[in-house]
Amino acid sequence: MNPLSIRFALYTLAGTTAWIFIEHIAGFNTTNLAIGEITHNFAMIAFWILIFVEVLVQRKANGNALTFKEGFFSGMQFSFFYCIGFALLIAFYQHYVNPEYYENYKAFALERLHQYNASPQLIDSSMKEVDMVNNGSLTSYSMMFLYSIVFGVFLSAIAALVFKRKSS
Questions:
Q1: Among 10, 30, 33, 59, which residue carries the largest CB count within 10 Å?
Q2: SS3 content of the chain, % helix, strand, coil (to 5)
Q3: Residues 165 and 61 sit within 8 Å (Cβ to Cβ)
Q4: Smallest Cα–Cα separation from 161: which of 56, 47, 12?
Q5: How far apart (Å, rounded) are the C-alpha atoms in residues 113 and 97?
Q6: Can you tell me the distance from the alpha carbon of 58 to that of 62, in angstroms, rounded to the nearest whole number?
Q7: What is the CB-side half-sphere exposure of residue 21 using CA atoms within 13 A?
Q8: How far apart are CA 53 and CA 139, in angstroms?
């Protein structure tokens, strides 16, 4: 286990937690879901960027030397701990802080589809997707973790390739 990767994941989760509560206070997850749909992406984009930062920090901690294996493992470990924490954070938020989120978002998504005169088939498929992703079930959180970790592994490989450097 790499303590640097775990510490980095915990710091990133602290920032993500702060961001989610800022969104909540601003109403982006309660009354202004149109903006929230955009701002929800900020946490994931920050995570993707921080994979690269974490691998670079790992290289600096290794005396400015890093093998692909070390970089990849470091990025994967950061991603794994972050993604688990993120899924748990969203579960906590959705069940205890904002338990009305799913119903509010479902109504928002349906209203928007009607505004755009979506076909019944599109409405049906879109609402199934909303239900699958946002319903607050173990499956939805597991899917969130899986999608996040797949991107984390992919970006860890890229970061390890970008920042690998032989020792001098």
A1: 59
A2: 85, 0, 15
A3: no
A4: 56
A5: 27
A6: 6
A7: 10
A8: 31
Radius of gyration (C-alpha) of the chain in whole angstroms? 19
Q: For residue 2, what is the DSSP state?
A: -
Give the C-alpha separation, 146 to 139, whole Å. 10
> To which residue do tokens 């970006």 refer?
155
What does the block give as tokens for 64? 């400015």
Q: Which two tokens stand for residue 45?
A: 């984009």
Of 30, 31, 23, 34, whose CA–CA distance to 115 is shortest?
34
Q: How far is CA 84 from CA 6, 14, 34, in A?
A: 12, 13, 27
Q: How confident is the model at residue 168 (pLDDT cuts 50, 70, 90)?
A: low
* Spatial distance between the Cα atoms of 19 and 39, rounded to a whole number of angstroms: 9
In eight-state DSSP terms, residue 135 is: S
What is the pTM (predicted TM-score) of this model?
0.90
| Residue 126 neighbours by CB under 8 Å, 6+ apart | 109, 113, 118
Supply the DSSP string of 4-50, one letter for each residue: HHHHHHHHHHHHHHHHHHHHHHHTTTTT-HHHHHHHHHHHHHHHHHH
**153 half-sphere exposure, CB direction, 13 A CA radius:** 6
**Under a CB-based contact definition with an 8 Å cutoff, are residues 41 and 114 in contact?**
no
